[in-house]
């Protein structure tokens, strides 16, 4: 599905257009994901990973656009993608239909400007409207900024997946499992 388009004014005066990326934006999403993957180690993907395949991204965006539950909250500044957030069903099985999984990335240039908060607020409101009862995510244990944002929006830490990520230098980093269970707020 596609969310209602909104605007967010950044502290520097730039206007971010917040809307859903669709298959027509696949190249921009691909470029955004490659850039964010190379800016920090906080992305689960590396720039050379296979999910950066343009055809696959186009398929995913088409599926999300046509879904009645899954959605994207994408931030564009001057027509370029600077933030990418998606909420998708954990699994399409009856016992899982109440659960959404959230993934998010923002270009480093646009962090610390309230954009992530605006995108998160938009996503959680849409998730509720779409019938999700909880939204879950995994975050690098050393990503303090992201963990702070998630806690600010009602996510609680429920567990740790030890050594979930192995960086190119051989370092392991735990993954913190978080969930925002809407009726617990």
Structure, described:
It is a single chain. The mean pLDDT is about 95. The chain has helices at about 25-40, 55-65, 115-130, 145-150, and strands spanning about 5-10, 15-20, 70-75, 80-90, 100-105, 135-140, 155-165, 170-180. It has a domain at about 5-135: 3-Layer(aba) Sandwich (Aminopeptidase), CATH 3.40.630.30. Strands 1-2-3-4-5-6-8-7 form an 8-stranded mixed sheet, with helices on both faces. Helices cover about 30% and strands about 35% of the residues. It has 4 helices and 8 strands; from the N terminus they run ββααβββαβαββ. α1 packs across α2. The protein is of the alpha+beta class and about 180 residues long. β3 and β4 form a beta hairpin. Pfam families: Acetyltransf_1. It comes from Butyrivibrio fibrisolvens DSM 3071. This is Acetyltransferase (GNAT) family protein. InterPro entries: Acyl_CoA_acyltransferase, GNAT_dom, MshD_Acetyltransferase. GO terms for molecular function: acyltransferase activity, transferring groups other than amino-acyl groups.
């Amino acid at each position: 599905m596609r969310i209602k388009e909104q605007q967010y004014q950044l502290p520097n005066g730039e206007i971010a257009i917040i809307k859903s990326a669709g298959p027509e934006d696949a190249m921009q999403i691909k470029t955004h994901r490659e850039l964010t993957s190379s800016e920090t180690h906080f992305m689960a993907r590396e720039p050379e990973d296979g999910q950066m395949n343009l055809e696959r991204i186009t398929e995913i965006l088409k599926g999300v656009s046509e879904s009645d539950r899954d959605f994207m909250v994408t931030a564009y500044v001057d027509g370029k993608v600077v933030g990418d957030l998606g909420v998708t069903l954990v699994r399409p099985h009856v016992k899982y239909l109440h659960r959404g999984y959230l993934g998010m990335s923002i270009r480093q240039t646009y962090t610390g400007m309230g954009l992530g908060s605006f995108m998160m607020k938009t996503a959680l409101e849409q998730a509720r409207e779409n019938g999700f009862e909880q939204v879950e995510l995994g975050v690098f244990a050393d990503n303090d900024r992201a963990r702070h944002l998630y806690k600010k929006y009602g996510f609680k830490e429920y567990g740790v997946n030890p050594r979930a990520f192995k960086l190119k230098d051989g370092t392991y980093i735990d993954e913190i499992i978080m969930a925002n269970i809407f009726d617990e707020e």
